Amino acid sequence: MAPSSPRPAWSRPSAARRAAAWVGRDGWRHLVMLVVLVFALFPILFVVSAALNPLGTLSSSSLVPRSVGADNLVELLTRTRFGAWYANSLLIALANSAATVFLSAMAAYVFSRFRFAGRRLGLYGLLMVQMFPQFLAIVAIYLMFSVVGEHWPQVGFNTRTGLLLVYLGGALSVNTWLMKGFFDTVPRELDESAQVDGASHAQVFFRILLPLVTPVLAVVGLLVFISTVNEFLIASVFLRDPGAKTVAVGLYGMVADQRDANFGMFSAGTLLLAIPVLAVFWYLQRYIVSGLTTGAVKG
């Protein structure tokens, strides 16, 4: 067999043609990804720069700081009650995440495994609740807790317990639906075989089903934790005492009247608040994809 002759130079694609073909095939994807990356990193870099800016004002902040210092962090920890705000945010977020995961899992187990009168109506009711934002009921919640606080001050305004009850009322519906879709993917034969061996419903729930639905538990816990840490509107209504505020409410009070002067401390506080969120996200990231996709397959 005779060796093939090399292609003539005039028939080879030029470098410009190869570059144009690459741009049309793959280059635009890289360009879009680069634009999205710049769009996402710009506010983060600006906040980091503002937190390291010793002047601590918004007008003197820039993407690249002229000088670097920890003055804003020191002033935030010494001039404000940031430690108490930080502790309140973490305590409320952890308690809300744990309670929401536990209560939503039990409700999802009931809706997924049992057939009873009012089951479909209850599911549609949970679906209807999701259609309305929680802050639409803020006036009714305010009036209700004004009366409740007079009789039981432990669950009234300026209390973590009262705020936690409000958060639980708004988070159970959507998380119950998410968990129910995951519970539906677990074969019922596992429940039946365990009950044949003498297991009760509680034993089936805690010992068999919960280990199998760990991904969705982690996803719900992560989403609730992040939303609770970042929540501002309801917390600003319930928490008025300086020592009872969360980080979101406390930082807003710093920049509400003096936005330019306290912007450096505000930026430092947001960076400190991001640490537990990133830590929880990093710890639970292996469950996120499987938990969300599996729970969305079947409703």
Describe the structure.
With 299 residues, the protein is mainly α. It has two domains: 15-72, no CATH class; 76-298, MetI-like (MetI-like fold, Orthogonal Bundle), CATH 1.10.3720. Helix content is 73%, strand content 0%. It is built from twelve helices and no strands. Helix 3 (82-113) packs parallel to helix 6. The radius of gyration is 27 Å and the shape is flat.
- Distance between the first and last residues' Cα: 64 Å
Low-confidence stretches: 295-299
* Largest sheet entry: none
Bin the strand percentage. under 5%
**What would you call the structural class?**
mainly alpha
- What's the count of strands? 0
Count every helix, treating DSSP H or I runs of 4 or more residues as helices: 12
Please trace the helix and strand order, writing H or E for each element.
HHHHHHHHHHHH
- Basic shape: flat
**Count of discrete structural domains:** 2
**Overall pLDDT:** 82
- Helicity range: over 70%
The CATH homologous superfamily of the largest domain is termed MetI-like
CATH class of the largest domain: Mainly Alpha
Q: If classified by CATH, what would the architecture of the largest domain be?
A: Orthogonal Bundle
Rg, Å, rounded: 27 Å
What would a concise description of this structure say?
This protein is mainly α and 299 residues long. Helix content is 73%, strand content 0%.
Question: Can you lay out the helices and strands and say which pair or pack?
Answer:
Layout: H1 15-52, H2 71-79, H3 82-113, H4 119-130, H5 138-151, H6 160-183, H7 188-196, H8 201-212, H9 214-230, H10 233-238, H11 247-257, H12 263-297
Domain ABC transmembrane type-1: 86-284
GO molecular function: ABC-type maltose transporter activity
Pfam family, one: BPD_transp_1
